[in-house]
Structures are given as C-alpha cells and as structure tokens.
C-alpha cells in the first residue's frame, strides 16, 4: 500500500503493533545470543584453565649424567648372567655419577639431597640400557635421566611470571640445578612416558597409558554388550511388542533408569556381578558390565526415537510388496534408523567414558601401576585416574591431572565429532 | 469425520423430516449390479471395525477378472478401508477387526490357511503418496523379486526390472540412471516407479489408493494411460476422489457412503443415469 493512500483502521492497528512485535523479536534473539555467549565463555574459561595448568605435563625435566658402567660398582662379572644383572647395584651407579658431577658435595645429608635430584626410575633406565647394549659394560656414556618431580616442578617454574616455585627443594638443590642449567645438562623433553606408563606414586613416572588402555577395554565391553541389547530391545518394543500395560510399564521403567544416579548402577554391579556371579573386581569386564547396564536406557531411548522417525510410508511400501515383518525391519527400518541409533550409542559411550561414580563401587579405583594387557587384568579408567591424581598431595600431580583431563576431553570431542560425521554421512533423505 | 457420527447426524436430520434431500436417504441395499460371474475377488457381508466404531457395513461386492473398478465417495466413506481389507493391510492397524467373507478366487483371504506374505505378493498395492524405498531405482524394482526369490540369476533379475519399468512406462526415462536413488525422481515418476515395483512380482490384483492425488495433471494422465494398459493383464481396484478419473479409467464404479456400498454399476451408467439418489447427489456435486 502506498503512503498516499489512506490506510483503513485495521492496517493502522497492524502497523502500531508491528514495532512492538519487532522489538519483542529482537529481544528474544538477544536472549539467545547472550545464552550462547555465556556458554562459550564458560567453555573457554575451562579450556584456558586446564590447558594453562596441564600443558606442562607433556614435557618432563631430564638431567644429563655421564654414566660409567663400572663392573665393580655393579658387581657384575658375567654380563650374560641374568641373575647377576637383576641383582646389580644400578642405584650405586647413579649415585656415583652424581657424586662425580658434583664432586664438592660432602656429608650424608647433602649427599642424600644430591641423590634426590634424579628420579628413582633412573636406575631402572640404566638397567634396561645395559640389557639392550651389553657391550657398554666397562664403558661410559652421557645419558639423560628423569629428574625428580620436585626438581621438575622447580625447573618448570623458573621462567614463570609468578616467580619460581621453591616447594620442597632445598637451597643447595637449587644451586645444583643452576649449575646444571649453566652446563646445559638439564632440559625439558617430550614426555612420552606420560602416554605409555601406568600410575605411579612418583609423579614424574606417572602416566595415563594404563588408564587409556583400561578405558578402551572397558568401553569395548560396554559397546559389545549395550549396542546389540539396546537395539534389539528398541526394535522389539517399537515394532513387535503389543501395546499393553506391560509394555507401558517397561517403557516407564526404561525412562526411569535413564535418570537413576550412576552410583546406584555401581552398587548394582557390586551386589549382583561381584557378590553373586563372582566376577573379579577392578577389571575391565566388571566395569564394562556396569557401564553397559548404565548406558542401555540411553541407547534404547535414542534407538526407539530413531525407529519412530522412520516414515510409516516406507513400512507400508515394504508390507505392500509382501515383505515379512522381520524383512521390513531389517531391510527398511533399521538402515534408515541406523544413523540415529549410532548417534545415541556414541553419546552413550561418551557418557560411559566419562563416568566415575559406579566404578568406585566395583574397585576400579585401585592404584594400578601396570598397563592392563587384557579384559581380566586389574585396570583403572581415565576419569578415575583423574579423580585419583586430583586427590594426591604432590604439587606435580596438579599438571598431571589437568593433562589427563585434556586427554579425556580430546577423546570425548573426537567421539562426538565422529557421531556428527557418521550421522551426516549415513543420513538418507526420503 | 467418523462414519458413526455422520450416521447419527443423518438419523437426526431424518427425524426432523426436511424435504427429501439426498443426505437423508437411508441406504437399504446396494443398487446396480455388485455381483459378477466368476469373480477375482468376492466380498460377502463384509464389515470392518476400528475399535468400537464400525467403518464398513455389510458390503457384498464382486470384482471381476481383468476389470478396473473405481471406488468413489466422500471422505470417510470407507472406500480406502475396503481397499485395504483386500490385501490385509489393515492387519497392521491396532484395534482393526474385519468380519464377513473375502475370497481371492477360491482362497479365503482371512482364512487360517492364507499366508499374508503370499497374499500381498498376489495382491499388490500402490499408495496415495509415492513411497519409493530410499534405494536406487534398480533396487526399488528388484526388491520384490529378490525377497520372493523370483529371479534365479542376475540376468533374470535385470530382465524383470527392465520389463516392469517398461510396463510402468518409466524405462525410457530412467534406463541410463538405474543406480541413482529412486527418491530423486519427480513425483509422477516416483509413482510410476512404485507401480513398476508393484508389478515386478506379477501380482494378480493391483490395489491403488488414490494414486494420483499427489500428482499434477500431466503425471496423472500418464498414470491413467498406464492403468488402461495394465488392465489387460491385471485386475485393478482404484480408489479415487476424482470422478473424472473414475469415469476415464474404470469399467465399473462403486459408490460408497458412510461405510455402505450404495451403488455399483457400469461406469458410464453411474455418471450419466445413476440409479440411487445419493449417487446422483454426489456426482452432481451437491455434497462430497
């Protein structure tokens, strides 16, 4: 309508309300933007904090020692004798090297402090070294060994803006570190042990390798159990079950289970799987069983939703051509529902990967040094490892904890990205 | 509107005794000739219930061999329900109950000996909305022969697919893109693909539930041509809302009203000199 034409009463009233409506719309959009920004801010804060604290754990302090593989100190006469090698005094070798480097140190107290510069894993490192290269016996070489966690924390904090963190290092130790820095005999190296080692009381030796492997074993059991059972239950309830009071009852219970606190599932696992069926505790099998039970409702609910979303016209087409009910489900309904089912499953798996509480109940909170080699080896999982480290008093565990959280987040992000990609790729239009 | 409530209103207005408008006419018996000799499908005293509501009341109807019979009537009159009783598609509806006798030649459709999968292989169906599977054009047509084991070899399967697509008048348009998704075709092509899928297993009867209601006039004309060609080999039951379509494609026309079969006659007769007042009212557009 042109401006010159005289608007009638209705048009006039509509115009009056228009401005108000547009304002309301703008306001509504603003709320949305604010909500999103708030969420992003929280996530950004979390990431900045965790990465800021945890990035240090990916590099570890190493000290260079000139090691003299002296057969007398080691007490080895025959290098091929495994027993001699096992009993050999590699600890003395490390101490000797340190004493040679800092020859002015005297007195028991000072010497003990000196020996604490390097991690007690140094002697095992030298053991392995001599085992793989027996020709070194009687020779000497320069070797980088792990520094103790207190030295590591101190060395890393030297350049920080808050000033050096002295912590449990003595003044003498600080001087020695300075002397090592001047000689270029101390440096940060990529901490591959963090990804390959199991847990340890010594922070510099502690790694998440065991927890990652434990998590993978546990998740494998969870997936192998919960996906087929969940999908079968969803298909039966959605496609074949009669609609009566029993199925209503089952549906209410499934929805209920999805909201039950996870620690209850831990208690259930303890009471049924461990006490009744005598499944060993602290192993991926029991963890996987409990997490499978916990994940089932999520998978069933999302699978049912995915099956429901398949248009009835596709089912009719299948029935109309003479496909049996099972053929309709297998040939037409499941392929179309699969993306939704897989998305639900991956989200359920991500949930299971991040779950701690039920595992505390079934002994997966144990202190386990060895990387598990199978489904029945004692194991722990990533979130429990984080829980354990967060509880540890040593300063060096702070960055380990954050680094472990980073690894866990990386796994979760990968899984969720995978879920999105899978859904996009499998999605078919009809 | 449900059949029952419409029935009640009809009764109520009857009591008010207005002028004898067609709406108030009570349906007693089917007029015309619902029964034929040696029918393909025989329905006697057929009733269908959805829960407590009766959707179809005691219908007697024969459908002859190689006949195209059109079913017309206002919405909710039970024509689609009747159609779906023939291949037992109503089995999948909760609370649906069928009574009466239905015979496909000599076989009792609702008998205990009848295998529903076999029945649906013998009585194919084309739906209102084109519903190709989200698979390739080839797989859409090949699916039926595959599950029923009709093709012994890949060559045979190719032949069946080609013949079905040819008979559905779609071959020329899709022969170069058989591996592309069936859902990528236009609406009319999709419906012809569905017809090709239905005839791929050589059914005896094809049920069509408003097959052209989602299509434009040109696509509709193609489907109608196709129906005329298919009638040489198949018995076709078509439900339609378009009286012109019924007049164009069918040999006989059955008029349904409130779940009752009012009139069955030669199509020409129904559209020129209907015997029943209700039929006349409907085809002249006084209601519907």
Question: Biggest interface, which chains?
Answer: A-B, 22 and 27 residues
**Shape category of chain B:** globular
Integer-rounded radius of gyration of chain A? 31 Å
In total, how many domains does the architecture of chain A comprise? 3
Q: What share of residues are in beta strands of chain A?
A: 5-15%
Mean pLDDT of chain A: 90
Explain the overall architecture.
The complex is a heterodimer of chains A (430) and B (288). Chain A is mainly alpha-helical. Chain A folds into 3 domains: 9-55; 59-191, no CATH class; 209-426, MetI-like fold, CATH 1.10.3720. Helix content of chain A is 65%, strand content 5%. Chain A has 18 helices and 3 strands. The radius of gyration of chain A is 31 Å and the shape is elongated. The mean pLDDT of chain A is 90. With 288 residues, chain B is α/β, with parallel strands linked by helices. The relative contact order of chain B is 0.18. Residues 1-24 of chain B have low confidence and may be disordered.
Question: What can be said about this structure in brief?
Answer:
The complex is a heterodimer of chains A (430) and B (288). Chain A is mostly helical and 430 residues long.
What key phrases describe this protein's structure?
heterodimer; A: about 425 residues; mainly alpha; MetI-like fold; three-stranded antiparallel β-sheet; 3 strands; about 65% helix; B: about 290 residues; alpha/beta; Rossmann fold; seven-stranded mixed β-sheet; four-stranded antiparallel β-sheet; globular
Explain the layout of strands and helices.
The complex is a heterodimer of chains A (430) and B (288).
Chain A: H1 9-54, E1 59-68, H2 71-74, H3 82-87, H4 90-101, H5 108-115, H6 122-132, E2 140-146, H7 149-157, H8 171-183, E3 186-190, H9 193-196, H10 209-240, H11 245-258, H12 262-274, H13 284-308, H14 312-320, H15 325-353, H16 357-361, H17 382-390, H18 396-426
Helix pairs in contact in A: 1-18, 4-6, 10-13, 10-15, 10-17, 11-13, 12-13, 13-15, 14-15, 15-18, 17-18
Chain B: H1 3-15, E1 31-32, E2 41-50, E3 53-63, E4 68-72, H2 79-86, E5 96-104, E6 107-108, H3 116-122, E7 123-126, H4 137-147, H5 154-167, H6 171-174, H7 187-199, E8 205-209, H8 217-230, E9 235-239, H9 243-249, E10 252-257, E11 260-266, H10 267-272, H11 277-283
Parallel strand pairs in B: 1-11, 4-9, 4-10, 7-8, 8-9
Antiparallel strand pairs in B: 2-3, 2-5, 5-6, 10-11
Helix pairs in contact in B: 4-5, 4-7, 5-7, 7-8
